[in-house]
Write a structure and sequence with these properties.
The protein is α+β, with helices and mostly antiparallel strands. Helices cover about 25% and strands about 35% of the residues. Strands 1, 2, 3, 4, 7, 8, 9, 10, 11, 12, 13 and 14 form a twelve-stranded antiparallel sheet that branches. It has a three-stranded antiparallel sheet with strand order 5-6-15. A hairpin with a 5-residue loop joins β7 and β8. α6 packs across α8 (about 360-375). The chain is globular, with a radius of gyration of 21 Å.
Length: about 375
């Protein structure tokens, strides 16, 4: 498969590099096996979905990273430790993704296959201000080809996370590609950080608030319960539920960090209220493990950020204008048959910065493209 086709498949959420787990006794040795599956279902049909491409071998770092050491420097205030923990998520990682439905609530519930994949990505610090930190994830992938050789690097902008201290204005997901602002009182956000998560095209995904906790073993932040759109791994293959409701926890350790999720797969009516007959289909657990690497060359990611950074900075600025000017947003899933990431990724690949900034032509492209996907505010209200 060509790198272009691999990239498009990854953006569509249907293909990612996969680490192999041993098959149980009596099953085909070629069958991939998910560790939790034996406790839930018998037989050999427990292989996870998530792709079949093979990544290059990765050597993991075994010493405590500088971000972890910074958190535990003597004399830091709680606020300084919070900032150090967030900044400690930057760096180059092997990331393993595991998702498993653990409980079903339907009468004839059939558990969906687990999802499992891995990749390599670098987390860049876009902004480091006293009360605001922005982290951009960029995948830098090397694939093992049929002849045993390693492919040229495949670079793809991934998700972004913005952290704001004592944030009183959250843009929360509602349902059916609609987001709305919720204002929080000052006392409710005291000492807390919001985390806003954005999709690959910098459109919103979800936002919540929580407080960092630190001890000698780990630093951890847990969100409040929030709604989220279906993830890419689901919306292309599932149409029996409408959104996820749950929370996520970020835990920074000596060797990297872990994101854990506990999600309920929710069905809602036309007004976004829980379905009265069957509000939830299943419960899902998810974990993404970020462990620092020693042998992955992330230079292509640096080069991508240098070339396309001004373009994506302009994209973020245009989105910020819409977030500031509107109490709600309603986003079309496609325009002219294409999802939003496609014209923006194409624009980023063709952009030529002028004096370190996006050109006027790029800025016009960005404004027009995002406007094409935003429905009228009267529809969103």
């Amino acid at each position: 498969m060509s790198l272009l086709l691999i990239k498009l498949a990854m953006l569509a959420g249907i293909l990612t590099p996969l680490s192999a787990y041993a098959a149980p006794d009596g099953c085909d040795n070629e069958t991939r096996f998910y560790a939790f599956s034996w406790a839930i279902a018998d037989g050999c049909d427990n292989a996870p979905r998530g792709g079949s491409s093979v990544g290059a071998e990765v050597v993991l770092q075994t010493s405590a990273h500088t971000g972890w050491l910074r958190i535990h420097e003597a004399g830091l205030t709680k606020f300084e430790q919070d900032r150090a923990a967030i900044l400690g998520m930057a760096g180059g990682y092997k990331v393993e993704f595991d998702f498993l439905e653990t409980v079903g609530f339907e009468e004839d519930y059939q558990r969906d296959k687990p999802y499992q994949s891995w990749g390599t990505e670098y987390v860049y610090v876009l902004t480091d201000e006293p009360k605001f930190i922005s982290l951009q994830h960029v995948m830098v992938m090397y694939f093992k080809q049929e002849d045993g050789s390693i492919s040229e690097p495949m670079v793809m902008k991934h998700w972004r996370q913005d952290w704001t201290y004592q944030d009183q204005r959250l843009l929360e997901y509602q349902f059916d590609n609609k987001w709305a602002v919720r204002e929080l009182p000052e006392q409710e956000v005291a000492g807390k950080w919001s985390q806003a998560v954005f999709q690959v095209d910098d459109s919103p995904r979800y936002e919540s608030i929580g407080e960092w906790q630190h001890n000698a073993s780990f630093s951890s932040w847990k969100s409040a319960t929030t709604r989220r759109p279906l993830p890419r791994r689901e919306y292309s293959v599932r149409d029996d539920y409408h959104l996820l409701e749950g929370f996520n926890r970020h835990t920074v350790t000596r060797y990297g960090w872990v994101q854990e999720e506990e999600n309920w797969k929710m069905v809602v009516d036309d007004n976004g209220a829980r379905d009265s007959v069957q509000p939830y289909l299943a419960k899902e657990l998810g974990v993404a493990r970020y462990q620092l690497t020693e042998n992955v060359d992330f230079t292509p990611g640096d080069e991508y950020m240098e070339k396309s950074g001004p373009f994506w900075s302009a994209v973020r600025a245009v989105w910020a204008e819409h977030f500031a000017d509107n109490e709600s947003l309603l986003l079309s899933k496609t325009y002219d048959g294409m999802p939003l990431f496609m014209p923006l990724f194409q624009g980023a690949s063709e952009s030529e910065p002028v004096d370190g900034k996006a050109s006027e032509q790029d800025l016009e492209l960005i404004r027009t493209t995002i406007s094409n996907y935003l429905k009228q505010q009267s529809e969103a209200g």
